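User: Can you help me understand a structure? I only have the sequence.
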Amino acid sequence: MLKQGNRITGVRFADFTVNAKITLDGTELGDLLALGEIPHRWGWELQSEWGEPSAPVEFNSLTRKYPVQSPTWVVIMQDYGTEIAPEVTAAPNYDESSFVAAWDNYGAEKFMNYGRLPGGLFMINWPFCGNDYGEGVGRLIASAGAKQAFIEESDYHSQNFAHFIQKHQGRRYGLANDIFPQPQNLHTAFALHPYYRESPRLIGLTTIREQDILPIRGGEVAALHEDAIAVGNYPSDHHYPGIQFPLQSKSIRWGGRWTGTPFTIPFRSLIPVETDGLFVCEKNISVSHIANGATRLQPVVMGVGQAGGMAAALCTEKNIQPRELQAKELQIALLEDLRCPMAIIPLFDLSPQHPQWLYSQRYYLDNLDTYPLNGHCQNLYSYRHNYGDYSTVLPHSCQCFIGSFLCIDKQNYRLLITIPNNLQGISYQLVTLIDNVDMELKTLPHMQQRKIYGRLNPAGGWILVKHIDK
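Assistant: Let's start by predicting it. Here is the structure, written out as tokens:
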């Protein structure tokens, strides 16, 4: 890392040097934080730090064994059908007892369908007695040798899990071929590196706490940050092998399924307290260990990355430091980006394709106190009447299903199919990502015959509803 005083000026690699006005740390493990001696956190904070309801009151055996969440080395398996799949051999340290309860309470079929992909492929990324691996996870930041030893063990653990799956579910399942390019001596079914759920985390101008991702009292959204630059909605989810860690719920039912409370990422969480010349834009943002369970997800990280890139470009153009950039200028640049406009305000009922989307985004940015608790811009429903719902896919692009609509309970819907004939008598869960369809599903009478357009996911057991005939 290259520094002048408290300012980062670039990075020196083994074969070349990059000098930069603004540097972004988008590494999986926040590598630049340690290299640049930039203040950062690693591991748990106690409840006394910020009053987070899910944080431990004192350090304990869990916090000592797993200072951060466990990574997973994802592996892709394949259904070979009537053929016999190549044998998946056991790797060193194979321990069948660590996997024996992997699909208890789920069943083998539901377990395999969890990560089912097209073409008979299965993504194996399973937290329950599966291929999460966290033994000595602190080695990831100890030394190069210790990190390599952990990574090798994580690879062996996933191979052993694949071996266990084949052994107990049959030789029709084996490792897939030619999925990932491999620069090292790994099978092409293994991802290029583990999925790291947590890294060293910046001490920034703002720290995202659990309270910032939980719903407002009586609402279905989290409170807005004035300097919001990205949106997330994942439920808070922590991975510690063999341990169930209770967390304050931020899940809601919407669109016939469980989803997470929408929340925003503040711009100031990307900026170090004192260091200039640097943005962070991965899991290394300024966030608590607890809140990281929701901010670590790929859609959030992609949004943070886009915001970080835009911020770096603006700082470079203006020849200013990150802390000098006005959040509102960055927000407008992201909203009005011609190639990929990015949402700043979570809204259930307006997609970016809607003619009033940009207006509503800017309106709530300027009037934070009017942001509705349910995340619906009800004052814009007249615009939807005039312009139609631009998020709806036309029915001819979907499959048609006819049957009896079943309202099992609140936000739990199914369709007992009569047409098409090959699905007659089967009921599928109905889910949607479209607000007006969600509202229609809430009002449909139980057992009424309906014609529904959407896409069937037989592995998931649901129909993604795009349109309901009036």
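Now, to help you interpret it: The first helix runs from residue 31 to 35. Residues 383-391 have pLDDT under 50 and may be disordered. Let me know which part you'd like to focus on.
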